[in-house]
Amino acid sequence: MISLFRASKIFPLVILVSAVLFSIWWLGNRVWNLVETRQVRLEWLEEDKVSRTITTSGWLIKEERLLHSPGRGQLRLLVGDGQRVRAGEAVAEILLSDNGDVKKKMVVYAPWGGVFCNHIDGLEKVLRPGNALEMEAVEKLGAKSFSLATGDRVEKGQPVGKLVDNLSGMWYWCRVPQEETNAGKWSSGQQVVVLWRGQQICARLEKITGKEMLFLLPVYPGDLVQQRHVQLELVAGEVAGYLVLPRAVVERDGHPGIYVISRRRATWVPVQVLGETSGRVVISGRGLSTCTRYVANPLWVREGDRLE
């Protein structure tokens, strides 16, 4: 009788606890669905074309000349780094002193018009137009840049700066992937568009040897004058696809994909990423069209979620 009495007391309590837990689960699930529905952002796929680019790394070759100190003394620069000067203009002075007293002043002049640079990288006599060089050898040398400032002590014959002829064009010597050179799409004399920090530069392919290419840049942005080793992008054609936000691409087992809405359910489908432009990536994939809606913020979405 006592056991039956205890059971009659415990059983309703178990029922009550189960009902409370079920209510909490149901309420939590409804709240999650509500939050998920409010947070999920759906967009229609947009079709567009973007430029296909090849990122390259290489060296700039310029018409440049080192300017040497005519004597031993204290340097005084008369022009700023990156300033254009005329032929015959004074760019620096060397103050020759004895026991702290200035005895003589010698002047360094610009031999021709150009851009004065007070930094030197040690490749001025190596990377010259017309030199037959191996890129591997130049890479081993590397650029050892240093610069002088007013007040520095210099020796006779020491370079105090250099002059770059920015009107004669510049050459870009780089490597490209072997599959690109083997594709037969490149030829000497070909006009090519290259990108430097988003700026378009018209170039001409002068020579192609194996994986190495030499481009002439007749006109270029002024900030390239002071560069040596740079990364430029070669525009190699256009690709067509669909634009999506970068965060919309979700990887599964190392493969990119997006969540699309199929029969009101979120369904992950594999895609191929073709390129990127203006904060969006360009993709392609089977069954995609401008009538396809995708999830722009899949952080809130799971496979099979019901979305309207």
Automatic annotation (TrEMBL):
InterPro entries given in the database record: BSH_RND-rel
Residue spans crossing the bilayer: 10-28
Organism superkingdom: Bacteria
Domain RND related barrel-sandwich hybrid, residue spans: 65-165
Keywords: Membrane, Transmembrane, Transmembrane helix
UniProt protein name: Putative membrane fusion protein
Organism annotation: Desulfofundulus thermosubterraneus DSM 16057
